[in-house]
UniProtKB/TrEMBL annotation, chain A:
A UniProt-annotated Pfam family: B12-binding
Organism annotation: Umezawaea tangerina
Protein name from the UniProt record: Methylaspartate mutase sigma subunit
GO molecular function: cobalamin binding; metal ion binding
Signal peptide from the UniProt entry: none
Residue ranges occupied by any B12-binding domain in the UniProt entry: 7-145
TrEMBL record, chain B:
GO MF entries: asparagine-tRNA ligase activity; ATP binding; cobalamin binding; methylaspartate mutase activity
Signal peptide region: none
Species of origin: Umezawaea tangerina
One GO BP: anaerobic L-glutamate catabolic process
Protein name per its UniProtKB record: Aspartyl/asparaginyl-tRNA synthetase
Keyword tags: Aminoacyl-tRNA synthetase, ATP-binding, Cobalamin, Cobalt, Isomerase, Ligase, Nucleotide-binding, Protein biosynthesis
Classification via InterPro entries: Aa-tRNA-synt_II, aa-tRNA-synth_II, aa-tRNA-synth_II/BPL/LPL, Cbl-dep_enz_cat, Glu_mut_E
NCBIfam families per record: PRK06462.1-1
PROSITE patterns hit by this protein: AA_TRNA_LIGASE_II
Residue span(s) of domain Aminoacyl-transfer RNA synthetases class-II family profile: 523-751
């Protein structure tokens, strides 16, 4: 069988405490250029709105972005809630941005976030190519199992 | 400079304080500072108050408090998670009272900055804690900060304005001049700022500030400032008001020099165009919440830049920015006698429409771009009421790459400018990724900058030779190779040469021969080449060269204090000669000769290594007590000082075997470094020397050196050499400091950058 990339739906969101949006605009454009349909639910997204949106849109991938420095704290809370919803246990969910207030030091939050249930963590220091590769690989994987 | 000199006013009220400073011709500078730990918040306010500038204090609130998630803020505090600001609602009122106790008030007003579309709990908390100055706005604290419907934000801000207006001395600043931080043409920012100012006034406020954030072009910014002040005069007559400038609010330069240079531009903008107050940004802006020290450095840097700025020529106060802003303000004011309802309607109609704003109540039909001249321009105006004034070019499609290019325009200009200004550098690939290589011999040696710098070096060395000769020193020509050399270079490698079948070394420093020289000369000096293959990672520190020169001095029978005195006099002699005889050259290099006023007016500062470590730790920098001050720490201390200073008494283990251990205080060395101010870092290292055979051998063993390698030297020491003290001044580093250069390689005629293939 051919491994063909499939267009899938990506839900882009920030977390409840974060109002930055340039990051979201950027990610939306990037994902659209990779050939995917993007639902961008914006900044300051309360946890229940995020869950409701995920349940409604059934995204193939959820991309959470936060740069205000609270991402590591908000991220753990959000992923616990997502993972405790029966429909979202297996949905690929990634987080990225400036996840703490410590600059290069932020990479130390990665393990906690992975342990809490994220499928991948893209710290600010990682090149955006790593994210692109992740999304491409996920596209290929979806094609096989679909 | 005396700190007292900055006490321009003993005013209690925020607006009065700023007005009195403005009348005295001083720009008020203010940080954007906020820490969740009350102790750190207090230290930050103290440091702001003591900074060498006319300051007001800031408490910036964290993101949880801004969105009303006070429970989440409490949970984070309990878990010891550091927040991005001070949670004024979650902390007990008594905690906040303790933060400002004895600090706030006469001569030091403190403003609460937040970013909330439902501000009542915050306003209640700040009033409850005795604060009267804050920031906000129905539009500017909603669209960039919240998904709350604009209508609700207008209601919330109406009530909050009235709460504030009921308090004497209340001051409210609009965030309208910033909005999304970037890519919004200035006229819309000016219009929103003015409209919110009018909103505040109509809700009873009597002391107001209008804001404007620095954008991409200094000339356009000056037009915008004049437009804003003219509109202020037209609409806010009768209330107390001033204009506050924000240092650039978009993607910020990453290099410290780029960041500081952009900040200086904002300070100049404010000073030249009648801005009364400036909110600064720090060198950490692009990456993380800044430390207290970084905030203070930014305040002082901005204050100095403002002092030097002068005033702008009267200029056009009827510019395109004014025309567009006035058209928008008029159209919005005409919509409804109630400005709150008018604002909501204006967004529905697209009379107000902020580029790239995702808020559901923003129409999203406008776009801004950076035009070919570097100015912000409209590419789409949607329904903005400026169609008669603007014909935007056809908007190009937007991709993630073109968006990033537009967003990073300022960052790249300022980061690259620092790299490109003095030499067009080409990129060369080395083992460790990409590093900048120096330009070709022809480019470098014919460059006016190099030629001026070399003449400054020549002048400084001439002055040094004269001073030393007049004081009884003899110049000896240095050795270049020998069987053994100084092991001291941390992390650097020595270069071997084949000397008739023996493995000799290129000198990493002259120390062994300096001590030998004393056998024939009590006071000697050399200008000696050193080769140290520093790790390639140091290529970008701006301060390492693989080949450089030291002005080496050694004095028989001298103690450390004798050496310190010679350093002070020698450095002053060189600086004085250059400042006196080469003012035109310094000016050509953009070097302000006032930078040396403190240096030339007295003794240098002195601090022990232990005290420097404690100082750095106090400022939140994790400095090891057993090592040399690290690069960042040195830069922090260097930036804090206005003249060179000595760090003395390094711990044993951090230096070579020849630095004398204090007989009275084992473990502590009788040595020193001289650190330049302004972030230029170390200029000179020296010490009293070990000279007794047994001690030298013991110290060699302790530092992991094999005494067997040091044949001729140890033989000589065993037979006896004089006690001495001496030092070496890094010639290229010193010239870099004198000329204010970005990187040390620019002070070398034939630069060898670590790890870079060079000519
Ligand atoms: C513009 C800006 C604002 C605007 C935002 C307007 C808006 N609605 O978007 C305004 C002025 C309103 C603002 C407000 C605040 N800001 Co702000 N802001 C910035 C600034 C200057 C630029 C951000 C930007 O536009 N970047 C461009 C976009 C495209 O890139 P990006 O966001 O950096 O994301 C990149 C990567 O991180 C990555 N990425 C991001 N997310 C993800 C996710 C995934 C999955 C992947 C793969 C990659 C990825 O992709 C992007 C492209 O490389 C930055 C500092 C800077 N960078 O210079 C501060 C900054 C992000 N802000 C900061 C803060 C703290 C705030 C405030 C809390 C105020 C405060 N205390 O100072 C509030 C936010 C309130 C809240 N509720 O959260 C801090 C965060 C500190 C930290 N993390 O350590 C910064 C770093 C400034 C600083 N040094 O203090 N801000």
């Amino acid at each position: 069988m051919e491994l063909e990339k499939r267009e899938f739906t990506v839900l882009v969101s920030s977390v409840a405490s974060d109002s930055h949006t340039w990051n979201l605009v950027f990610l939306q454009l990037l994902l659209e250029e990779l050939g995917h349909r993007v639902v961008n639910i914006g900044a300051c997204v309360p946890d229940d709105l995020l869950i409701a949106s995920c349940v409604r849109h059934r995204p193939d991938l959820v991309v959470i972005s936060s740069v205000n420095g609270h991402g590591h704290h908000d991220g753990v809370r959000v992923i616990n809630e997502l993972r405790s919803h029966p429909d979202l246990i297996g949905t690929p969910v990634v987080i990225g941005g400036k996840l703490g207030i410590g600059g290069v030091d932020n990479a130390r939050h990665t393990d906690d976030l992975l342990r809490a249930g994220f499928d991948a963590v893209f710290d600010d220091s990682a090149p955006i190519a790593a994210f692109r590769e992740y999304v491409d690989a996920l596209g290929a994987l979806t094609a096989v199992t679909a | 400079m005396s700190r007292i000199a900055h006490q321009v006013s003993s005013a209690v009220a925020f607006g009065d304080f700023v007005a009195e400073a403005a009348a005295a011709g001083r720009l008020v500078v203010q940080p954007r500072m906020g820490f969740s730990d009350p102790g750190q918040m207090r230290s930050g306010l103290i440091a702001t108050k003591l900074a060498d500038a006319t300051t007001v204090g800031t408490i910036t609130l964290d993101s949880y408090t801004r969105v009303g998630a006070d429970g989440e803020a409490r949970r984070a505090l309990a878990e010891g998670v550091a927040l991005n600001g001070y949670p004024i609602v979650a902390h007990e009122p008594s905690t906040t009272a303790a933060v400002v106790e004895g600090l706030r008030g006469r001569g030091f007003p403190v403003q609460i900055r937040h970013g909330s579309a439902h501000p009542e709990p915050i306003v209640a908390a700040l009033l409850g804690a005795g604060f009267t100055a804050t920031e906000g706005g129905p539009v500017s604290y909603c669209l960039p900060y919240s998904r709350l419907p604009l209508r609700d934000s207008v209601d919330n801000w109406s009530r909050s304005c009235e709460l504030l207006a009921a308090v004497p001395d209340a001051h409210l600043e609009t965030f309208g001049g910033c909005m999304m931080g970037q890519l919004c043409p200035p006229s819309l920012l000016v219009a929103i700022s003015v409209l919110e100012g009018i909103f505040f006034r109509r809700h009873g406020l009597r002391s107001i500030s209008l804001s404007y954030a620095q954008q991409t072009d200094a000339g356009q910014d000056e037009d915008a400032m004049r437009a804003l002040r003219r509109l202020g005069r037209e609409f806010l007559d009768g209330v107390q008001w001033h204009v506050v400038v924000y240092a650039y609010m978009g993607v910020y330069p990453r290099t410290p020099k780029g960041a500081l240079s952009l900040l200086a531009g904002a300070a100049r903008l404010a000073a030249r165009t009648g801005g009364a107050r400036l909110i600064v940004k720090t060198v950490a802006e692009s990456s993380r919440i800044p430390t207290i020290a970084e905030n203070v450095a930014a305040l002082e840097h901005a204050a100095r830049a403002a002092e030097r700025a002068g005033t702008a020529p009267a200029g056009d106060d009827d510019s395109a920015v004014y025309q567009e802003a006035r058209a928008i303000v008029d159209a919005v004011l005409d919509l409804d006698p109630d400005l709150g309802r008018g604002l909501v309607r204006a967004f529905e109609l697209g009379y107000l429409d902020v580029p790239y704003c995702l808020h559901p109540d923003n129409a999203g039909r406008t776009r801004g771009h950076v035009d070919g001249a570097g100015r912000l321009a409209w590419s789409r105006i949607g329904a903005l009421p400026i169609g008669h004034l603007v014909t935007p070019p056809r908007a190009e499609g937007m991709t993630s790459a073109t968006l990033l290019t537009a967003l990073t325009h300022v960052e790249r200009t300022f980061d690259d400018e620092r790299l490109e200004r003095t030499a067009q550098m080409t990129l060369t690939t080395t083992t460790a990724g990409t590093t900048t290589a120096p330009p070709s011999p022809r480019e470098h040696l014919t460059s006016p900058v190099t030629r001026t710098v070399m003449r400054v070096q020549d002048k400084a060395l001439t002055a040094a030779r004269e001073y030393l000769r007049d004081n009884g020193f003899t110049e000896l020509l240095p050795a270049v190779i020998g069987p053994v050399t100084d092991p001291g270079g941390r992390g650097s490698k020595q270069v071997d040469v084949d000397y008739y079948g023996h493995r000799y070394k290129l000198m990493t420093s002259a120390i062994l021969y300096k001590q030998a020289s004393l056998l024939g000369f009590d006071k000697m000096f050399s200008i000696a080449p050193n080769v140290r293959l520093e790790p390639p990672e140091t290529a970008n520190t701006s301060r390492h060269l693989a080949e450089f020169h030291q002005l080496d001095v050694e004095i028989a029978g001298a103690k450390r204090d004798d050496a310190l005195k010679v350093v002070e006099e020698l450095v002053a002699a060189m600086v004085d000669r250059v400042v006196t005889e080469m003012p035109a050259e310094l000016e050509e290099l953009g070097r302000d000769k006032d930078a040396f006023t403190d240096l030339l007016s007295g003794a240098f500062g002195r601090v022990t290594h232990g005290a420097a470590v404690a100082d750095l730790r106090g400022l939140g920098h994790a400095q090891s007590a057993d090592a040399e001050i690290d690069w960042e720490g040195e830069a922090i201390l260097s930036r804090k000082s206005s003249r060179p200073f000595f760090i003395t008494d390094y711990p044993k283990g951090s230096r070579g075997f020849y630095d004398r251990e204090d007989p009275a205080e084992p473990g502590v060395l009788r040595n020193f470094d001289l650190i330049a101010p302004e972030g230029f870092g170390e200029l000179c290292s020296g010490s009293e020397r070990e000279f007794e055979y047994a001690r030298i051998v013991a110290r060699m063993r302790e530092t992991g050196e094999n005494p067997a390698k040091y044949g001729w030297y140890l033989q000589m020491v065993r037979e006896g050499i004089p006690a001495s003290a001496g030092f070496g001044i890094g010639v290229q580093r010193f010239v870099r400091y004198l000329c204010g250069l970005d990187a040390v390689w620019q002070a070398s005629a034939y630069p060898k950058i670590p790890g870079v293939v060079s000519w």
